[in-house]
Amino acid sequence: xxxxxxxxxxxxxxxxxxxxxxxxxxxxxxxxxxxxxxxxxxxxxxxxxxxxxxxxxxxxxxxxxxxxxxxxxxxxxxxxxxxxxxxxxxxxxxxxxxxxxxxxxxxxxxxxxxxxxxxxxxxxxxxxxxxxxxxxxxxxxxxxxxxxxxxxxxxxxxxxxxxxxxxxxxxxxxxxxxxxxxxxxxxxxxxxxxxxxxxxxxxxxxxxxxxxxxxxxxxxxxxxxxxxxxxxxxxxxxxxxxxxxxxxxxxxxxxxxxxxxxxxxxxxxxxxxxxxxxxxxxxxxxxxxxxxxxxxxxxxxxxxxxxxxxxxxxxxxxxxxxxxxxxxxxxxxxxxxxxxxxxxxxxxxxxxxxxxxxxxxxxxxxxxxxxxxxxxxxxxxxxxxxxxxxx
Length: 391
Known about the structure:
The protein is of the alpha/beta class and 391 residues long. It has helices at residues 3-34, 36-42, 60-71, 91-102, 118-126, 148-153, 177-199, 215-227, 239-249, 270-291, 300-329, 334-357, 365-385, and strands at residues 49-55, 79-86, 107-112, 133-137, 141-142, 161-170, 210-214, 229-230, 233-234, 253-264. An eight-stranded mixed beta sheet has the order 3-2-1-4-7-6-10-5, sandwiched between helices. It has a two-stranded antiparallel sheet with strand order 8-9. The N and C termini lie far apart (47 Å).
């Protein structure tokens, strides 16, 4: 076995074992959450809730579907909804929707004169609301089941829980092949990666489309949240990951709830998807620096998980470059080892998805493995070298 083959073997073992460990832990968390004891511990909890919906240039039909889904929630406690229009350029088209819901006693519309960003829009509500729990929902997200908010707040019955993220799925899944792939990627992100982190109460990113936060904790960190800067520039993305980090830094538990389901719209073309991935990867690298401040105080799993999330893409690129060189100049047969590792990783993820959901469409996820190498890894490196750009 030459040096390259040894390196590929090490990379393959690290990557496959990381996924396998995630799957085992995630499945344990899945079973824990459906256990009667867990359900009994978290039932009959209905704290006061304010739902926050920031809006900027949203499609009128989509925002109406979003607000209508909130109105249909069967929540036993007090539930208020505050919509913040953050200086939308298409406000005239949105006004009929705003007027429809502003007439309802449990809805309130706030207008910002200029676009300030999602964090400032949320803080307007943080500063005014006296509810016990904030539920944050993106304007293109729909809670299609009437118990979505009931489910996402139930774990706050444990006073140590500071934040909970729901299970975000893809509303426009059937639009094209890309949105189907993204849908399967979302499932693995929540039901494998986040679920494994949730088992140890160290979930690293409460998803922007549908999450909940304890007001008493948010009150402590909201000023840090809105004033975050990086390399001298105010941060305009990565809000969900940073707010999660602030809550973890305060020592609170952050969890995933697999019954709190919402559906969101995802990019339907490669260009938009890559722009989104660049933003997400910038926030990942930026927040890793923040995580280092408290990571030693949390469960060891978060150290292991973050470390492999950081180094595996670099190892993959080195493996790719070395393989191409070997194929061209030395031995073309080495390409089969690289392809076997790539397909093995994708198949392992797909197999668990098929097992849990009985959806054979997860086998398409093998194609995502190639998209990951050809498009998403370059996007990750581009994000890293353009960290100073905040647009």
